[in-house]
Amino acid sequence: MGGDVDGLHHVGHLVRDLEQAMERYRRLGFTVSEPACPVLPGMAEPFGLVNTHVYFPGAFIELVAVGRVPAGARPIPLRVPGDKLPGLVAAIRATAANITAFLQRFEGLHIMILDTPDIDAVAARLTGGGVVHGGVHDVQRPVETATGTRMEPARYLEISDPGLPPGRVPEGRVGFAQNAPVGDQRHPGHPNGATGLTGCVLCVADEALPEVERRYGGYFGRTAPGAAGVTVVPASALDGLLPGERPAALPAFAAYTVSVRDVAATERFLRGNDVPLARTGSGEIVVPSGAALGTAIVFRRHG
Questions:
Q1: CATH topology for the 8-179 domain
Q2: If you write DSSP's letter for every residue of 20-72 in order, what string do you get?
Q3: Do domains 8-179 and 194-301 have the same CATH topology?
Q4: Whole-prediction pTM
Q5: Which of 82, 104, 128, 177 is buried most, with the most CB atoms less than 10 Å from its CB?
């Protein structure tokens, strides 16, 4: 790609009821992991954040809720060096507050994290370009392997808008993540034939387009947004891309795209589950946002 961005690391779909969202995603044909909640050493109670994942090789979709933790949710210990703990606690509490604020805007996609092989280089580049961020946080993440779940290192940073609380930009949460490679990580198959997370669509007001393109130019550096799977579209052009979609607020991540092995088989599966379908402007099948808890899902042929 000519830069320090390797595509999407994950997108985050914020929902009001995680159990309902898990059932909806299973109806859409995704294999969904069991819910989990982050906890830190010495803290008896979780932060109130709870999530689950739809995994692909190298990327995932995260379903996130705040508030009630479902019965049976697995606690995930976040292991960090002692000197890093206060900063991480502050960052997670800020994330919980931000997620609450995002859900007040609308239920849907509010998180886009980009994958990088060198997050320290990204942090230095952003700082040099005047992009505000919260620094690199070192954590451990649960990884499903052939021998069971184990914790593996992960590092991330969040971009901040100077006029908003830390960890927020107008469209939600945007950042970068770097994971240590895991050679025996398991990637479950999906009944709908999905093979990967390939893109997302950011819709902005027409008059805001130049400023958003400038901002994202700073985020991506030498990597073009399109090369990383991010499409920025003005509101006046959204109907041509995703007919009938009307974000509840702007700017907004209006959709994400997954690749599938066989589009016709995916369509048969979805119709068999009575999932409403539409077509993109280029004829690809899409589950409208009204049927997918606030975000449209586009299914695109692999490769």
A1: 2,3-Dihydroxybiphenyl 1,2-Dioxygenase; domain 1 (3.10.180)
A2: HHHHHHHHTT---PPPEEEE-TT-SS--SEEEEEEEETTEEEEEEEESPPPTT
A3: yes
A4: 0.91
A5: 177
